[in-house]
Design goal:
The protein has about 120 residues and is α+β, with helices and mostly antiparallel strands. It has one domain. The protein has three helices and seven strands, in the order ββαβββββαα. The protein has helices at about 25-35, 85-95, 100-115; strands at about 10-15, 20, 40-45, 55, 60, 75, 85. A hairpin with a 5-residue loop joins strand 1 (about 10-15) and strand 2. Helix 1 crosses helix 2 (about 85-95). It starts with 9 loop residues before the first strand and ends with a helix.
């Protein structure tokens, strides 16, 4: 899918400099799961709060964004209540625990309603 906005965009840079672009943070997790030497790949995410590129591995992720692929994870530089780490986002994506899963979507949205 073409990347037509920075809002949820991401990049992955391999050791040799090859760079891959993504339109949704969830897509990075799916792609990264298939790579060798995952820890050597640099991940950049566009931050929704500071509007700049940040280290995707140290970013915090919201769970209910309206992302291009509907996974729901948006990257933020500053931690907020209910946000998760990159590792937790990665695991949730691999397990299918994102907003494309109707049971997870209901669970997350119900949880957010209770917090209000």
């Amino acid at each position: 899918m073409p990347v037509d906005t920075l809002k949820y965009s991401a990049e992955a840079v391999l050791e040799n400099g090859d760079t891959y672009f993504f339109d949704d943070p969830g897509c990075v997790a799916i792609w990264l799961n298939k790579q060798k030497d995952k820890d050597k790949i640099i991940i950049w995410m566009y931050s929704l709060d500071t509007k700049r590129w940040i280290n995707g591995r140290t970013a915090y992720y919201s769970l209910v964004e309206n992302t291009p692929m509907f996974y729901g994870f948006g990257a933020y530089e500053k931690k907020q209540n209910g946000f998760i780490t990159f590792n937790k986002m990665f695991v949730r994506m691999i397990r299918g625990e994102n907003l494309t899963n109707p049971k997870i979507r209901k669970q997350i949205l119900d949880s957010l309603k209770k917090q209000k």
